[in-house]
Amino acid sequence: MTAHLRELYRTAYAADPAAVDDITVYEWFMDNTQHVFGILKEALPEREKSVLQAFLSPVPPYRLYPEEADHRWYRRLFQTADEMKKSYRFVHFAIKQAVDDYFAMQEALRTLSEAPAAVVWFDDVSGVVVLEGEEGEHVVKADVQAAVEALQVDFLIDMTALLGRVHQPDVFPQHASTDERRLLHSLPRQERVITVPEAATHALFQQAPKPMQQLAASIFTDPVDEELKQTIAVYLTCQMNASSAAKQLHVHRNTLQHRLERYQAATGVDLRSFAEASAAYMTIAAEHRDS
Amino acid sequence: MAELKLDHVYKIFDGDVTAVSDFNLNIEDEEFIVFVGPSGCGKSTTLRMIAGLEGISDGDFYIDDKRMNDVSPKDRDIAMVFQNYALYPHMNVFDNMAFGLKLRKFPKEDIKKRVEEASDILGLRDLLDRKPKALSGGQRQRVALGRAIVRNPKVFLMDEPLSNLDAKLRVQMRSEIIKLHQQLKTTTVYVTHDQTEAMTMASRIVIMKDGVIQQIGAPREVYTYPENVFVGGFIGSPSMNFLTGQLENDLFKIGERSLKIPEGKLKALRDSGYESGAEIILGIRPEDLHDEQVFLDTMPEAKADVSIDLAELTGSELVLYTKIAEQNIVAIVNPRSNIYQGDQIELGFDLNKAHFFDPATEQRIKG
Ligand SMILES: Nc1ncnc2c1ncn2[C@@H]1O[C@H](COP(=O)(O)OP(=O)(O)OP(=O)(O)O)[C@@H](O)[C@H]1O
Ligand SMILES: [Mg+2]
C-alpha cells in the first residue's frame, strides 16, 4: 500500500519522520505494519485526507518518535519490557495548553541531560522524559526547574514536572511510571517542579480523610490571613532561615519576626517543634493546590 | 512597536476568587510600565492575562486595536522573562538564545545575526559557547533576557526578573534593563513588589492592592501626589508618616500639639466640606520634616517638641524615630545634625508638601 502512495504523492511523501526538516508540514499515518509515513499537508486536499484516514491510522504529532530510544521506551511503558542494563530516572511533565510543534518540544526536553534523553508522550498534554544511567544520577531539581521555565517562555505554556527517583534496571518501568505520574498531581499551585519525596509528603496529606484535613486547617490555617500563611510557608521552605525568608518575602527581618510571633500567638503552634512545623507546612501547601 | 489596552478586565478564579477587578489601562508605545503592589494583589495574574496564559473572565484586551482575548499566546508576539534562570541546562548560550527562533522557523543566517546582535548588546559575545553551569548569576540572567530580545517581539513581559539576584547584582541589572529599553524601545510591562525598582525603572507605575488599581502615574507623580493612604505608605522608603488628628480653625491638632495649616491646603479642606472638629489624617514624608534652625524660624507655627526614641546614622542621612500622641514618626535629616537618642528637639513640618486624607475613605482630600 505505501509503495502505491509513495508513487502517487512522489516528493510530497515522507518515509521517515526523523528524516524531514519540518515535521509539522506533514500529515502522518501508520499502516498495518506499524510503519509511519507522512504526506505534505499542502499536497493533501481535505477529501483525500479523509479517505486516507479511513484506511490508515492517523498519527498525532506527539506520537511521532523520531529517535530509536523513544520507541524503546514507548514499548517499555506501553507494551512489554525488555531486559535493561542501566538504571533509569523519569521526569514526568504536564502542560496546560497543547503546543503546535511537538517535535521542537521534544528536542528541548531531550536537553534535560547531557546525552539526548528519550521522550514519550501519554497524550497531547503530558509525557515523560527518560534519563538513563549516569545522566539520571546527575540531574538535580534546579536543572529541571530551569528547563521548565525555558520551555514555558519558548512555547508560552504553563508546565509542571516531577523529578522521579533513580530506578534500578530490575524495576518494572510501567509500575515506576504509574506511581510517579500520579504524584505529579499533588503539586502545590505556586510550584512548577517537585521531587518524589516532596510530592509524597503532599500526597500523604491530601489523601487524609476530609475531617482530618478540616481539623488540620482549623488548627494551622483558619485562624490567620493569607499574608501570614504565605509568610509561614516561605519561612518553612527556607529551612526556617529568617534572613533568606525575609529576603524572599521582601520584608525586613523584624517584620518577619513579628509575623512569626503573630502566627504562633493566633494558632498556638510552636514552629520550633519539627512535627508541628511540618504539619503547618503541609496544611498550607494543600490549600494552594490547583483544583 | 505596540500599544496595549486593558478595558474593564476581570479575573475570577474558580467562580469566586476575584484576583483582578475592573482593571483599566492604556499602555502607550515604547512605555516601560511597572505593576507594583504587595504579594497576592494580582500583578502576575494581570501579566498572565496579557500573555494569554490566563483567560480573561470579563472585559477586553487589545494590542494595537486588535482584540486579543481569544488569540493564543504564541500569536500575540510577546516575549516573557521570569524570575528564575529560564535556561536549558545542557544547551550552550548560543543555542539557548537561538532556540526560540528555531522554533519559529527563522532562517539559520537570520538566527545567527540576531543572536550575535543580542549578545553584543548584553556583553555575552565571549560566552556563546558556555553552558549555563559555567556562568555567574548575572550572566545567566542576561542570557535569559537575550532569549527574549532575539525575538524582537512587540511586547516584553517581565515577572520579577531580578528577585532571585543578590542586592548588588539587582541594582546593576536594574540599570542594564533600563539601558536596554532605551536602546530597543520595546513596550514593556514589568512586575515587581519592590517599590524602589518600580520608582527607578518605570515610565509609569500601576499600584495595585487586592486586585484593584490604586493609582496610575509617573514615579514622581505617585510619590508627590498619592491618591490614598495605601499608595502614600507603599511608595517611598522609609514610608510616609500618617498622623490622625483634628481640624480646628486653621490648625491641625494632634493631642496637645498643633500645626498651622497653610492657606491653600486649608481652602482645599474647607472646599471639600471639612469643618472645624473634623477628624483628618495628615500624610507627610520623612524628608519633609525638618530640624534646621532656618526652617524652624521661617515656619514657627508648624513645629512640635518631640523626644527622639532612636537616631540612626546611615551615612548619607540621619533617620530619627519619634512619636507624637502615641503615633510613630520617622524623619530624615541632615547627617551632620547632632541629634541622639533621648534628645528633646523641635521638629518642623513642611505642610506645603504634606497631604490630608479622609479617615473613612482614606482618599486624599484634593479640594
Ligand atoms: N490558579 C489560581 N487559582 C485560584 N486562585 C489563584 C490562582 N492564581 C492566583 N490566584 C490568587 O489570585 C490572587 C492574585 O495572585 P497573583 O499571583 O496575581 O499575585 P501577585 O501580585 O503576582 O503576588 P506575588 O507578589 O506573590 O507574586 C492571589 O490571591 C492568588 O492566591
Ligand atoms: Mg507574582
TrEMBL record, chain A:
Q: Which InterPro entries did the record assign?
A: CdaR-like_regulators, Homeodomain-like_sf, PucR_C-HTH_dom, PucR_C-HTH_sf
Which part of the chain is the PucR C-terminal helix-turn-helix domain?
Answer: 229-284
- Where on the tree of life does the source sit, at the highest rank? Bacteria
Q: Which Pfam families match?
A: HTH_30 (PF13556)
Q: What is this protein called?
A: PucR-like helix-turn-helix protein
From TrEMBL, chain B:
**ABC transporter domain span:** 4-235
GO terms under cellular component: ATP-binding cassette (ABC) transporter complex, substrate-binding subunit-containing
Which example biological process does GO assign this protein?
carbohydrate transport
Q: Name one GO molecular function term.
A: ATP binding
Q: Which InterPro entries match?
A: AAA+_ATPase, ABC_transporter-like_ATP-bd, ABC_transporter-like_CS, ABC_transpr_MalK-like, ABC_transpr_MalK/UgpC-like, Mo/tungstate-bd_C_term_dom, NA-bd_OB-fold, OB_MalK-like
Alphabetized, the UniProt keywords read: ATP-binding, Nucleotide-binding, Transport
Alphabetized Gene3D superfamilies for the sequence: 2.40.50.100, Nucleic acid-binding proteins (2.40.50.140), P-loop containing nucleotide triphosphate hydrolases (3.40.50.300)
The reply to whether Transport figures as a keyword in the UniProt entry is: yes
Q: Which PANTHER family match?
A: MALTODEXTRIN IMPORT ATP-BINDING PROTEIN MSMX, OSMOPROTECTIVE COMPOUNDS UPTAKE ATP-BINDING PROTEIN GGTA
Name this polypeptide is given: Carbohydrate ABC transporter ATP-binding protein (CUT1 family)
